[in-house]
Design brief:
With 236 residues, the protein is an alpha/beta fold. It has a single domain (20-235), classed as Rossmann fold (3-Layer(aba) Sandwich), CATH 3.40.50. Helices cover 31% and strands 30% of the residues. The chain has 5 helices and 11 strands; from the N terminus they run αβαβββαββαβββββα. Strands 2, 4, 5, 7, 8, 10 and 11 form a 7-stranded mixed β-sheet that branches. Strands 1-9 form a two-stranded antiparallel sheet. Strands 3-6 form a two-stranded parallel ribbon. The longest helix has 34 residues, at 202-235. The protein is elongated, with a radius of gyration of 21 Å. The chain starts with a helix and ends with a helix.
Length: 236
């Protein structure tokens, strides 16, 4: 009986010691476009229609998640591994009016140092793109008693609440590759609300994160379609 009790105690302690590290943050898109007002006012749209669209996901410097990591150093990083995006998502973008082709920016084209949007435009130019869709995913974890920030380790056996919430926000902008003119911006948010006892393992909490991020991105696609339709009406 003592042996069984010790085994049970050891098992409970191991479960209590299970941890999960929250993902890195997204990056405020306004912080990477520059702040020179005169320069911003001087930019003009120059995209050719039908347009080739490059697509890139950005994040805070040194971004890491349970299943992903970013490349590039400097003011921000680029996430090139698809853990929330699907081929169908990119096909959906390709079906938008006046889109000739959609091309994700690969890690081979990402500069070693990333200072601002001009670096991404240079990568998109290598793909002969006319416009670039830049988006970021910012995910936050919260319980009834605590806000869990980016890259914070959670001891899953000691979550101090019965309720846990994952909130993912997808922010995006469409930029002219030639001139840096910003055609428009948008933002969508999705939430996963669960009891903390469901978060008993790393895999469980990771699944909640991915569901929230995928939903935010899918909702973002709808807003991107609306924005692009207005771009075509005005400039195409």
């Amino acid at each position: 009986m003592k042996r069984l009790a010790l085994i049970a105690l050891a098992a409970s302690l191991l479960a209590a010691c299970s941890t999960y590290t929250t993902p890195g943050a997204g990056v405020p898109l306004g912080s990477i476009v520059g702040t020179d007002v005169a320069e911003a006012m001087a930019r003009e749209p120059a995209a050719v229609f039908p347009s080739r669209m490059a697509v890139v996901r950005v994040a805070a410097p040194g971004y890491q998640s349970y299943s992903n990591s970013a490349v590039g150093a400097g003011a921000f990083s680029v996430v090139t591994t698809r853990d929330i995006e699907t081929d169908e998502n990119f096909e959906r973008l390709g079906r938008m009016p006046q889109i000739a082709a959609v091309a994700p920016v690969s890690r081979l084209l990402v500069p070693a140092t990333l200072n601002n949007v001009a670096d991404l435009r240079a990568s998109a130019a290598q793909l002969r793109a006319d416009v670039i869709l830049i988006y970021t995913i910012d995910t936050r974890f919260r319980t009834e008693s605590a806000e869990l920030g980016p890259l914070q380790t959670i001891a899953l056996g000691f979550l101090p609440s019965r309720k846990a919430i994952v909130t993912a926000t997808c922010a995006f902008m469409i930029v002219d590759v030639r001139t840096g003119f910003i055609y428009g911006t948008g933002e969508t948010t999705a939430m996963q609300d669960q009891r903390t006892n469901v978060w008993g393992t790393e895999n469980a909490i990771e699944a909640a994160r991915l569901r929230a991020e995928r939903q935010a991105f899918e909702d973002g696609l709808g807003e991107i379609e609306k924005l692009w339709a207005s771009v075509v009406r005005e400039h195409g």
